[in-house]
Amino acid sequence: MDSLIDLERENAVLRAYVAELEERLKLLERLADSDTLTPLPNRRFFMRAVERAVAQRARHGTPAALLFLDVDRLKEINDANGHSVGDEALVHTAWVLREKVRTGDVVARIGGDEFGVLLDYTDEAAAAEKAAALCAAIAERPLHGRIGISCSIGIAALQPDDTPEAALARADAAMYKSKRRG
Asked: What is the pLDDT of residues 63-114, one digit of tens each?
């Protein structure tokens, strides 16, 4: 009888340990998919979301578009105000982006001063309207009421034969065209 009680205690201890490990694993997964500065997902998470959208596009013809956004003149903001203010500019931009897209859309920081937005069920014309609205919203909200932030955005509508990398490369190239046009 004592050995049965001992086994039940050991099982309870092991169940508690497994539950703790599962919680730690969930935390590690969240950290692996999160940007360390902004409250957004990171590139790794974003690319998985794009993979799903590409598969949906190929399988069902579901429209989607990528926006590739670059914060203009971040180096100048850093040089004039310090890197902490540059970081605040990125967090501020992230906040505006997240606020101005639909709940199901994915906004992620994909590197440095670059953000990606995945707009599900969106064609290229609607994506262009959303890109213009996002640029306007960012410009309308200066950081600390005095530091203007602007952005350049490239758009790529997903194609039936796309890969996530090809779609992102098109959006990136379109962003550089946008940046050159001012």
From this structure: 999 999 999 999 999 999 999 999 999 999 999 999 999 999 999 999 999 9
Whether 161 sits among the annotated catalytic residues: the reply is: no
Q: If DSSP codes are grouped into helix, strand and coil, which group holds residue 142?
A: coil
Whether this prediction's pTM lies above 0.90 is answered by no
* E strands, the chain, in order: 64-71, 106-111, 114-120, 151-157
Residue type, 159: Q
Considering 35, 72, 113, 120, which one is annotated as catalytic?
Answer: 113
CB contact at 8 A, 127 and 153:
no
CA–CA dist 132, 130 (Å, integer):
5
